[in-house]
Design brief:
single chain, alpha/beta, Spore Coat Polysaccharide Biosynthesis Protein SpsA, Chain A, Rossmann fold, eight-stranded mixed sheet, 13 strands, 21% strand, elongated
């Protein structure tokens, strides 16, 4: 499947650099991309310089914030707003540039080579000629315990953003991280990815002389705080197999029609969130087919079951929960939906967990 990139470029006072950054994207041999340039309350002519460099290209949007947000927040909010759901995100700072006109094509080839690759990063060179720290990761080491080697050029599928714990974007006081801002997204992407790939090719030039020089020691301390918080958030995280049931019209309230067949949008949205978090999901929709019951091997596959219960059709929800006990399902059983919200006591004792309200988080 062809790869579409959304290049997100955040900057502040980048009047002297943003033009070459945009030009490095416009001259890429891979043409399927869109780009958003976010100037964070600039004090110079960054916006005007960016608009000149864009040259009216409809794939490029240039905007400026009205309040200081910082690189991380601008990256995340711009991805939510401007990136199609099936695109690959590319984070490129405004004072850096793609040093290779075939960079995006090479990265796209990595994603196309293996459809399960969710993260790709490359080598980079600094403007002083030093080859940067990026490199391959050891397969038996968690990204949270691995030394930092996934810097520039960093890319991942947008759907991973849906699975990230957004508490990881905030420091201990609830403010967006303002240092080591590539760590909160990239480390979570590496954790959630089905597969990741390092491309041993210099694709990006990192401008070491632009803006304020980073205090590497201070940045390193912030990076460790970020890792510590992510370790807490992902403590016990494992990929699971989750089987969902939608209750059918069995024994339903006759005042409600059971003839209309509608997609279970709430459950499908929840399944998408779980897939983005690295889990495998399957669905048994008994509203579509009241006789549908999974094969024994499907129940053996599932680590957990989620049962959607609506009040007019609670009889079938009770049937599902009871049959799971009869068949000695050994995994974790969750009940949710409108009936669980209105009358949780009616489902207690039949499920390990009854979820009231929205279950996504």
């Amino acid at each position: 499947m062809p790869v579409h990139f959304t290049v997100i470029t955040t900057c502040r006072n980048a009047e002297g650099f943003i033009g070459r950054c945009i030009a490095s994207v416009r001259t890429q041999s891979h043409r399927d991309w869109n780009m958003v340039v976010v100037a964070d309350v600039p004090e110079d002519e960054t916006v005007a310089a960016a608009e000149r460099a864009a040259g009216g290209d409809p794939r490029i949007a240039v905007t400026a914030t009205r309040q200081r947000k910082g690189s991380l927040r601008n990256h995340v909010e711009s991805a939510d707003l401007y990136a199609p759901h099936d695109s690959v995100l590319v984070f490129l700072d405004g004072d850096d540039r793609l040093s290779d006109p075939g960079a995006l094509a090479a990265v796209a080839a990595e994603y196309e080579r293996d459809p399960e690759v969710d993260v790709v990063w490359t080598r980079h060179v600094q403007t002083d000629g030093y080859i940067g720290c990026s490199g391959p990761m050891k397969p038996d080491v968690s990204p949270l315990d691995h030394y930092w080697c996934a810097s520039h050029l960093r890319t991942f599928r947008k759907r991973l953003l849906w699975g990230m714990d957004r508490e990881g974007f905030l420091d201990e006081d609830g403010n967006w991280w303002t240092s080591a801002t590539d760590h909160p997204t990239m480390l979570q992407a590496l954790l959630l990815a089905r597969r990741s790939s390092f491309l041993d090719r210099v694709c990006c030039e990192y401008n070491v002389g632009a803006g304020t020089t980073n205090d590497l020691r201070a940045t390193g301390k912030v990076a460790e705080r970020i890792r510590a918080k992510l370790r807490r958030l992902y403590s016990g995280y494992k990929r699971r197999n989750v089987l969902f049931f939608v209750n059918g019209p069995r024994g339903g309230d006759r005042r409600f029609s059971s003839l209309e067949k509608r997609p279970p949008m709430g459950i499908l949205g929840l399944m998408a969130r779980l897939e983005a978090r690295g889990h495998q999901v399957r669905l048994v929709d008994r509203w579509l087919n009241p006789e549908w019951w999974p094969e024994p091997e499907t129940l053996d596959w599932a680590h957990a079951v989620g049962v959607y219960a609506s009040t007019p059709n609670k009889t079938d929800a009770h049937y599902i929960l009871g049959r799971l006990k009869e068949e000695r399902f050994s995994g974790y059983v969750m009940a949710g939906g409108p009936h669980a919200t209105l009358h949780p006591e009616d489902l207690e004792g039949q499920a390990d967990c009854v979820c009231r309200g929205e279950a996504d988080d």
